[in-house]
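Entry 14. Ran structure prediction on the chain below.
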Amino acid sequence: MTEDIIIGVDLAKNVFQLHGAAADGTVMFRKKLTRVQFHRFMTDQQPSQVVMEACGGAHYWARELERLGHQAQLISPHYVKPFVKRQKNDAADAEAIVEAAQRPSMRFVEAKSEDQQASAVLFRYREKLVKQRTELINAIRSYLYEFGYVVPKGPRHLRKVTELVEGVSTALPEEVRDICRDLLDQIVAKSRRIDDALKQINARSRQGETLKRLQTMPGLGPITAVAIETFAPPMETFRRGRDFAAWLGLVPLQNSTGGKQRLGRTSKMGQRDIRRLLIIGAMSVINWASRGHDFGNGWLNAMLKRKPRMVVAVALANKMARAIWAMTMKKEDYRSPAAV
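Output, structure tokens:
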């Protein structure tokens, strides 16, 4: 590998901007290439350090460049922005990528494999279907409300919607009935696709040993396990479970100065899908605990007596994140606090 050159690439759909610099920052070349020219140029180029922003298509190009013998690295766009000088353009972005990559303390994003990206597409596909189904249900609820019929939120109340639409005694214009019937058919189709996607996720969650191990934790199901494997970097990149919890944004936001520590709400920095799923899982554990189910967790019972449920859920999600790191690193199944 050529150690004395680093190439920053500002990715786009058709035109890529390259900035080549030496180890001391001396500019060696600036190029604007198409997709085909970029691939040909990197094929002829000596093995080098190539840095890109972690954006759309970046993981694909990272794998392609690795196949060509280069060392591909990805940087979060948030870390590149402070290095952009004056006006923002493709050339300035490519130069900023190089300068950011030369920082000794810079944090890089782990490139995803094809299998991880396939899991991500499946996860996003299901999330999109759920969102579209929710929009359709809310549309029907709003239409019925215009004629004096109130339907509660959620797909579990669709039977009531069907009864109102098909009911003989319901005072609805025929045009509104036809529209609601069409929306109900779309909801049924969306529900089938959601069920099919969930079956694929469940099947994927039974394939790996790590996925099976994660699901031994209360409040952590197949969807959360697949999300952790898909979106989280290797656990070896974190020194301890506290770092993984901080990466997820499950720690207080600091605004400290002058030696005085000021902690606010959760930072919400990091991977939002895993954070959201862990909080939902923690809330399910809290609901079971409030109904008398004993998880052997004295800390949880004591917190529920002193703090609001949502605050306890975020704190429990933080503990779950630390336990996930420990389970993955030690390759052990979940052990309840009482068993420990």
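The beta strands are 5-10, 15-22, 27-34, 49-53, 71-75, 108-109, 252-254, 263-266. Will compare against last week's run tomorrow.
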